[in-house]
Specification:
about 230 residues; alpha/beta; Rossmann fold; seven-stranded mixed β-sheet; two-stranded antiparallel sheet; 8 helices; 9 strands; globular
């Protein structure tokens, strides 16, 4: 018997595979820090490989950070985090443009941990592949029109802040309202308030309970006449 998470993963992959099956498509996995975007991307790739499904190429927007000096120069508060963290021009040039032209993509230009450029590598994308981009702020105005579809991963900050901070030694304040979390939580609130990403997404994946996610399809992209809820 499949677990509730396995049922939800299979449903989402079925949705992906039905979407323009003979073309390259670009799908965003959008959501706040700590909600589980990268983990979901890995699960989808692993399931696709295990079951011989439509190929998936996985890329993270984190490979397109600005240098640390530039990020801090944009401001150390929420606004600087939201507006000054990423090089969207480099992402468009390295991933979106070549993907649309049928050319190999460059999945990263910057190593955020080392704070240095990475040597350019190129990945060929099969003609019918799904390219998944996971990251924060993916429905900003600079990127809103590039996606063929979007998954918004949702969970309250009371869940995502402890999850996200657990990945970083020394960042152990689990209160979303703590001054230590102001830059990150505040920036993500700015994004949610300005862009309403959950309302604009194709699918919403509630990841509050990792073992029992709930998936629904919005009507906004006209993928079906009615939204569907999958609640394993």
């Amino acid at each position: 018997m499949q677990t509730p998470r396995a049922v939800a993963l299979s449903y989402l992959l079925d949705e992906f595979e039905a979407f323009r099956p003979d073309e390259r498509v670009l799908i965003a996995l959008d959501g706040v820090d700590g909600v589980g975007k990268s983990h979901l991307a890995r699960e989808l790739v692993e399931l696709t490989t295990a079951e011989g499904r439509r190929p998936i190429v996985s890329v993270s927007i984190d490979g397109f950070h600005r240098p640390r000096h530039d990020r801090l120069a944009a401001g150390t508060g929420p606004d600087g985090f939201y507006r000054g963290s990423y090089r969207y021009d480099a992402f468009l040039e390295s991933v979106v443009r070549p993907l649309r032209n049928g050319e190999p993509i460059c999945p990263a230009v910057w190593d955020v941990a080392r704070d240095e450029p990475v040597e350019a590598t190129f990945v060929a994308v099969p003609p019918n592949a799904i390219t998944l981009i996971d990251g924060i702020f993916l429905q900003r105005p600079e990127l809103a029109d590039v996606w063929d579809a979007v998954v918004w991963l949702d969970a309250p900050f009371e869940v995502t802040v402890p999850r996200g901070n657990a990945r970083f030694p020394g960042r152990d304040d689990v209160d979303p309202e703590s001054p230590a979390n102001r830059r990150y939580v505040g920036g993500q609130r700015l994004y949610r308030d300005e862009e309403r990403p959950a309302d604009r997404a194709t699918w919403v994946w509630d990841n509050s309970e990792l073992e029992r996610p709930a998936v629904r399809r919005n009507d906004v992209r006209n993928l079906a006449e009615n939204s569907n809820d999958i609640r394993p």
